[in-house]
From TrEMBL:
Gene3D superfamilies: 1.25.40.60, 3.40.50.1910, 3.40.50.2060, Syntaxin Binding Protein 1, Chain A, domain 2. It comes from Daphnia sinensis. The keyword Cell membrane does not apply. This is Vacuolar protein sorting-associated protein 45. PANTHER family: VESICLE PROTEIN SORTING-ASSOCIATED. InterPro entries: Sec-1-like_dom1, Sec-1-like_dom3a, Sec1-like, Sec1-like_dom2, Sec1-like_sf. It holds the Pfam family Sec1. It is found in: Endomembrane system.
Length: 579
């Protein structure tokens, strides 16, 4: 159930099958990202791939018949037409063509007719149509897939293709279940079921004692998790600096080396990151110090080059020394910037207020704390708005709620109109996901607030870690056989859920978070017999989630939510009383 390994094996095999000799890798915009997330460019170069081209930008390139062309494309009509044009006037000696998903017979016919010079050696389907961010985490990189609480048709198709690709790469023919309140999840489930029935020959996998499960969720079941500040290394970097295809831009970061405008954060390529990506911020400070101490010890040993033997040892160890030097610089820069942002924007105090909103029943205390923070210049407009979003979701039914007053405080501090208007959008988004008896915010068995003293990193005294994503409850109920057919029906025409759960693919319509990825990681460590692959339309931080929500509620009729359209004043100065 390792999605990253599945993609790496596909890429390795397509290059290997083309045989020895110099090669060019011809891809499209998406497959470039799919490959770059799974492989470092240096690794690809070691496989005799010396040229990388994007098919929509390669039309006027030089003719190099001595190169073999390995083609890896999504099976879109546009790509088929571009490849057909390439084959009519081939620039390379031979072509090995691989599509990341199911290709139609009509498309194969178009390519066959274009191959007049018979340069195509093979055409295959290699099911790597998703971004394998980690061994158990994948994304489709789809921004704003929902408009007016309906699927963007292209995004629905892309989501189905992506999930089907995950299933085929893992060789799973699953039972399909979805969240009953969500027509979005149901449509995707039915789309996937229809394709599995149509392409039944592809899904003839031996099931064994337990039948795999595909569980399709809707982000509205938990709109809180994407809005919270994060305190584990990977999630924190994504929230404050943003990770895109395992890369982080350091442009504009004070003190960042000039030759380090972008850094790679991949557990596959970076041992320190692999060992520490789930650690909390304070522990990272300790491990960074240990890494630097180890590096300084090795650096001192490199200074003693007094004999031929010393010179030989230096040359042999230099690549590892250089790699370690780069890792130290990268992580010291990242942790230094995270620490600066935490201090500059008062994120510890903001996070404390967020955790209280998400996990406690202290309305008066939370309201007082939020009012105090909203008049503080030190916190960012984004953080101020997120506190109001959380409060609105949490207490919109409380008799003493003061959403209007908080929105007014946002306006007074000069918060952008877009964020002020989004208070209503977030509330409507969350309310459209409420079901009878559901609890989108609170978990009864959440741990108490824990305070941890961090001695390894100056300026950080404690973090709050009480929030637990709703996904954790779903996983617990799943393993205990408590996911009811009423709340999580099996898609019609499918089989019923097996007694024993072992292999599970979870896909969240509307995006997944690193906090949920951590929950899956921890769950599988405790429940060693269960393997889970978790994915979503996008891997969210708070800003990308807010953008998705804005698109989702745009053009939504006023009566579509449980609350009046004018229940929250907008940034334009509307003052309807929220009673």
């Amino acid at each position: 159930m390792n999605v990253l390994l599945a993609v790496r094996m596909y890429v390795s095999k397509m290059i290997q099958d083309s045989g020895p000799g110099m090669k060019v890798l011809l891809m499209d915009r998406e497959t470039i990202g799919i490959v770059s997330v799974a492989y470092a460019q240096s690794e690809i170069l070691q496989k005799e791939v010396y040229l990388f081209e994007q098919i929509d930008k390669s039309g006027n390139g030089p003719i190099m018949k001595h190169l073999k062309c390995v083609v890896f494309l999504r099976p879109s009509q546009e790509n088929v037409q571009l490849l057909a044009s390439e084959l009519k006037s081939p620039r390379y000696g031979v072509y090995y063509i691989y599509f990341s998903g199911i290709i139609s017979k009509a498309s194969i016919k178009v390519l066959a007719e274009s191959d007049e010079q018979e340069v195509v050696r093979e055409i295959q389907e290699f099911y790597a149509d998703f971004f394998a961010v980690g061994p158990h985490l994948f994304s489709l990189n789809l921004e704003k897939p929902i408009h007016g609480m309906e699927w963007n048709p292209n995004c629905l198709q892309r989501s189905a293709q992506g999930v089907l690709s995950v299933l085929l790469s893992l060789k799973k023919n699953p039972i399909i279940r979805y969240q009953n309140f969500s027509s979005l999840a149901r449509r995707l489930a039915e789309n996937i079921r229809d394709t599995i029935l149509k392409e039944s020959s592809l899904f003839h996998f031996h099931r064994g004692e337990s039948i795999p499960l595909l569980l399709i969720l809707d982000r509205r079941y938990d709109p809180i998790t994407p809005l919270l500040n994060q305190w584990t290394y990977q999630a924190m970097v994504h929230e404050l600096l943003s990770i895109k295809n395992n890369r982080v831009s350091l442009v504009g970061v004070p003190g960042a080396p000039k030759d380090m405008s972008e850094v790679l954060l991949s557990a596959e390529q970076d041992e320190f990151y692999a060992n520490n990506m789930y650690l909390n911020f304070g522990d990272i400070g300790q491990t960074i110090k240990s890494l630097m101490d180890e590096f300084q010890t090795k650096a001192k040993s490199h200074q003693k080059v007094e004999s031929i033997a010393d010179m030989k040892a230096f040359v042999e160890n230099y690549p590892q020394f250089k790699k370690m030097s780069g890792a130290v610089t990268k992580h010291v820069t990242l942790v230094g910037e995270l620490s600066r942002l935490v201090t500059q924007h008062n994120l510890l105090e903001v996070s404390e207020a967020e955790q209280e909103l998400a996990c406690q029943e202290e309305h008066t205390q939370s309201l007082t704390k939020i009012r105090k923070l909203l008049v503080t210049d030190q916190i960012r407009d984004l953080d101020a708005a997120r506190l109001v979003f959380l409060y609105a979701i949490r207490y919109h039914k409380h008799p003493s709620k003061d959403i209007v007053g908080l929105v007014d405080l946002l306006r007074r501090r000069g918060t952008p109109v877009r964020l002020i208007d989004c208070v209503e959008g977030i509330l409507r988004y969350a309310s459209s996901g409420e079901t009878a008896g559901s609890s989108i915010l609170t978990t009864k068995d959440v741990t108490k607030i824990t305070e941890k003293i961090f001695k390894g990193l100056k300026g950080v005294e404690n973090v709050f870690t009480q929030h637990s994503p709703v996904l954790k409850e779903i996983l617990d109920n799943m393993v205990k056989g408590r996911l009811t057919e009423e709340a999580f029906p099996t898609v019609s025409g499918g089989e019923s859920t097996p007694g024993r759960i072992q292999d599970v693919v979870i896909f969240i319509v509307g995006g997944v978070t690193h906090e949920e990825s951590l929950a899956v990681h921890q769950f599988c460590r405790v429940n060693t017999g269960i393997r889970i692959a978790l994915g979503g339309t996008l891997i969210h931080n708070s800003q990308s989630f807010i953008s998705d929500v804005e698109a989702a509620v745009k053009s939504l009729p006023a009566g579509n939510a449980k609350y009046p359209h004018n229940s929250v004043p907008s940034g334009s100065g509307r003052h309807s009383k929220l009673t």
